[in-house]
């Protein structure tokens, strides 16, 4: 199947490779990447046969909106636009309506897998009309591991469920972070690399995140000494809490985890080192070195 991939960052590049390995014909566009097949969106369009399928894999926010509008202008009746970034689901619902007015299909795909997706597959939560989703299932099943793809509902459902997925992730990461900080501050000289290693086998707290934390201790040492305790958030945790408030659903764990990330930007604590190391391991998110973080903390724009 043909597909135009727009955005060749950490995940877009891995997704492109995985699809090509599965035999799909993937044309690509990214103004910052020389390996692209097209130098412009117009050229990308010319490389695809009608009905065309475009996959947007760009950062959420203004960039996604700008690229979506550019692609929508080029798209023709029957074409499909897939947004695989972490867009707010309300934006996705609006984009669905705008696309429908022009006879263009719109699909929102929540994608989880980070920098490991090329190797192990990308979990996909897809929202949209059946008529738009079903023709794309060869793409979805090629990207996902076995049983790792689902058409979860109508337009917006893909990004809504991915938002909640990331909110849950905040809570799990914070629980690990706090637990290891308690151990790190205790009277016992526990080898955290060894402990996280044995917890991977038979323990009720074993998980892929724990495997990644074990790898982080292996790479950075038990003290995570070269990682600054400064943890960013990319928005999904905030959106999850906003929806919980709107739905009158208590979400104390996810809320506390988000607030802990805020606190990490003003004080030094080991739990923040653990959370920062985990974000680096599963998503390739940059970690701040200690020296640069201290300089960053003196900048009022950082708080």
What key attributes describe this structure?
alpha/beta, disordered C terminus, 7 strands, 7-stranded mixed β-sheet, 303 residues
Q: How would you describe this structure to a colleague?
A:
- With 303 residues, this protein is an alpha/beta fold.
- It is built from 14 helices and seven strands.
- The chain has helices at residues 10-21, 41-46, 62-74, 89-101, 117-120, 130-133, 137-143, 157-184, 192-198, 208-220, 236-246, 252-264, 270-283, 290-297; strands spanning 2-6, 25-29, 53-56, 80-83, 105-112, 123-127, 149-153.
- The chain has a seven-stranded mixed sheet with strand order 2-1-3-4-5-6-7, sandwiched between helices.
- Strand 3, helix 3 (62-74) and strand 4 form a beta-alpha-beta unit.
- Helix 8 crosses helix 11 (236-246) and helix 10 packs across helix 13 (270-283).
- The N and C termini lie far apart (46 Å).
- Mean pLDDT is 92; it is low at 292-303.
General form = elongated
Overall residue-averaged pLDDT value: 92
pLDDT < 50 stretches? 292-303
Largest sheet properties: 7 strands, mixed
Draw up the topology in text.
Elements: E1 2-6, H1 10-21, E2 25-29, H2 41-46, E3 53-56, H3 62-74, E4 80-83, H4 89-101, E5 105-112, H5 117-120, E6 123-127, H6 130-133, H7 137-143, E7 149-153, H8 157-184, H9 192-198, H10 208-220, H11 236-246, H12 252-264, H13 270-283, H14 290-297
Helix pairs in contact: 8-11, 8-12, 8-13, 9-10, 10-13
């Amino acid at each position: 199947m043909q597909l135009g991939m727009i955005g060749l960052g950490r995940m877009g590049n891995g997704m492109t490779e995985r699809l090509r390995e599965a035999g799909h014909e993937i044309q690509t566009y990214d103004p910052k990447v020389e390996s692209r097949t097209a130098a412009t969106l117009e050229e990308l369009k010319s490389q695809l046969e009608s009905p065309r399928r475009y996959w947007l894999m760009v950062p959420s926010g203004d960039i996604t909106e700008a690229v979506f509008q550019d692609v929508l202008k080029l798209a023709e009746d029957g074409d499909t636009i897939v947004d695989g970034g972490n867009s707010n689901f309300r934006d996705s619902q609006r984009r669905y309506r705008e696309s429908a007015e022009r006879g263009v299909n719109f699909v929102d795909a929540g994608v989880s897998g980070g920098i490991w997706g090329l190797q192990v597959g990308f979990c996909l939560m897809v929202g949209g009309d059946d008529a738009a989703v079903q023709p794309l299932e060869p793409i979805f099943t090629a990207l996902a591991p076995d049983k790792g793809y689902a058409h979860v509902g109508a337009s917006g459902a893909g990004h809504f469920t991915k938002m909640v997925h990331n909110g849950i992730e905040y809570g799990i990461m914070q629980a690990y972070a706090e637990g290891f900080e308690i151990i790190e501050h205790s009277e016992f000289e526990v080898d955290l690399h060894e402990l996280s290693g044995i917890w991977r086998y038979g323990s009720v707290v074993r998980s892929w995140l724990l495997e990644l934390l074990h790898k982080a201790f292996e790479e950075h040492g038990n003290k995570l000494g070269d990682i600054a305790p400064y943890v960013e958030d990319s928005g999904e945790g905030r959106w999850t809490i906003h929806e919980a408030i709107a739905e009158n659903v208590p979400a104390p764990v996810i809320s506390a985890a988000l607030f802990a990330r805020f606190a990490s930007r003003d004080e030094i604590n080991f739990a923040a080192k653990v959370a920062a190391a985990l974000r680096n391991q599963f998503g390739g998110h940059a970690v701040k070195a200690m020296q640069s973080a201290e300089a960053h903390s003196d900048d009022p724009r950082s708080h």
